[in-house]
Amino acid sequence: MHSAPRSSLFRSLALTGLALAALPAVADDRQLLRTGTGDPYVMILFDTSGSMNWSTKCTPEDMAEVYDHDFDTNGDCSSGLGTPCVPLCTHLCPDGDCPVPRDGDDPSSKFRQAKEALYTVLRSVNNVNFGFATFNQDQLRVTWKQWLYRVAPAQPIGFLTLDSGAQFPLADTDEVFGQTFNCDRSGGNDDYDKGCYPDNNDAADTNDLWEMTKVRRLSKLGDDLAQTVGYYIRDAGQVYYVRTSNPAGNPQVLGDPTLLLRTELFRCTASQCRAGERTLVGEREILYRRIGDFVKWDFGAQRDPEQGGFDAATRSSANNTCASWDPNTDTGNDEYENGNGDDADDYSLRFPT
Asked: Do 159 and 73 touch, CB atoms closer than 8 A?
C-alpha cells in the first residue's frame, strides 16, 4: 500500500488530536462529534509489519514544497515568522515503500513518522481513553542494533584516489557499523554476491548506486570495533579490495559523535585477489560523523527502489505474526527466552493496554 507524504500523515493525526481535544464525546467512538458527558474511547491500530520500515511516497514536487510542521504560523510559510518551514519529505521515493538508511528508525520511514505524529497527538489531548493494538508478536526480540555514520566532507589527510582519479570513499556517503554479518547471505549466483567477491563481475561497480549502497550497508567492525571487514569494488575496469579497521590504541566506541577509522585500498592483480595477488594503493584514517543508531531490517537483495533491499539482514523478529491482533491474554507467549538457561536474560517487549 502506498502512503501519503510525511506532512499528510502528520497533519491527519494532528488534526484528529485537535478535534478530540476540542469536542466532548460519548463512549461510543462513532459519535465523537456529538456533545456528551463521558470521555471518549479511541482505539489506535498500529501496523507493525515489515513494510513500515520503508519510506512514505515522496516525489520531486513534494521535496520542493514546504509546510508549517509545528503550526506556529497557522500554515503561512511566507510570513517569515516562527520556525522555518520544512519540506514535505526529503527521501526521494516517487511510488512509496523505498528502503531508507536507518530502516524503521529513519525519519523518512513510516514507523518513525507514525510514532512522531502519535506522540504529538497524545501530548495535546486530555480526557480521552486510548487503547492500542498491533499485530500479534510472540517472543518479540531485538538482538542487536547498528550505527549509521557519514563520511565527513573534509578529511584530516585527504581521501584515497582510484586509478581513474576518482575520490574514495565519497564524501557524505553513509556507512553502517556494528555487529557483522556475511556479505553473501544467499550462496547463489545472484545480487547477494555484489561486493563480496572479486571475480565474475561481482565487485561492486562504483558507477552503480545500488551496488555501492550494498557494500556501504555491510556492517563493519562489530560492536567492539575489533573486527576488520573487507569488500570488493570495481572502477573503470580495475578491481580493488577495500578493508576497514579500527586503528590500534584508539579508545573510540560506537555512539561517539565521530569515528576515525582506517581504510586500506588494494589493487587486485589477479582474478581471485588473494593476499599475494593485490598491492596496496594507500591507506587513510577516514573521519565519520554520527547519524544515529537503528534496528536493522532488510527485505533482501532487490534492486527495485520500491520494496527493495540489499542483504536480508534483520536484527528484530517475532513469532506468530500472522495470528491476527495481539491480545492482552497471551502474556505467557510474549517473553523472549534466549535459550542460555539464564532466566534473568529473558525479557518481554510487549506492554498490555
From this structure: no
